[in-house]
Amino acid sequence: MNILFLCTHNSARSILAEACLNHLGGTRVQAFSAGSSPRENQKPHPLGLLALQKKGIATDALSSKHWDIFATADAPAMDVIVTVCDNAAGEVCPIWPGHPVSVHWGYADPSAVVGDASAMQAAFDDTLSAINKRLTAMLDLPLSALSGDALRRALQALDHV
Is 158 a member of any domain? Predict the structure, then answer.
């Protein structure tokens, strides 16, 4: 199952979700991430990378990218699209090949936290923890037995995890 996590800049929440799911999911799932409008020379947020590394999650292959690369005919076919920020959820998305299931799981933007270094890192750690909890619950679902509306409903129910 291929899952694409979307956020506006593809620097924090979607990157955390991609890395976390690839770490947890083994061969059951393949996660990707992208943004609707990554800034020029956008890179994954360093505090997000640190949060992942502290949990032993690989960060070497992570990069910020525009969602258009996943809407092409030669892109991996997505089974699920998950928006993780309200801005991306409200934007007009490309027409995804194969018409995958789409859901929204909102997370507060950890990069918007203002404060000392400890408070800022805690925001990323907390966001990763929330993402990890939801993805663990997702992986407990019988994903291979669900499709279409049943899969959408099961994933939407996880919005409260």
Answer: no
Pure H helices in the chain: 13-25, 46-54, 86-90, 117-139, 148-157
136-155 pLDDT tens trace:
999 999 999 999 999 999 99
Identify which of 32, 157, 45 has the alpha carbon closest to the alpha carbon of residue 104.
157
Read off the pLDDT of residues 95-152 as tens digits, 9 standing for 90 and up.
777 889 999 999 999 999 999 999 999 999 999 999 999 999 999 999 999 999 999 9
Q: Which residue has the tokens 């299931």?
A: 101
**Residue 161 forms part of a structural domain:** no
Domain enclosing residue 62, as ranges: 2-153
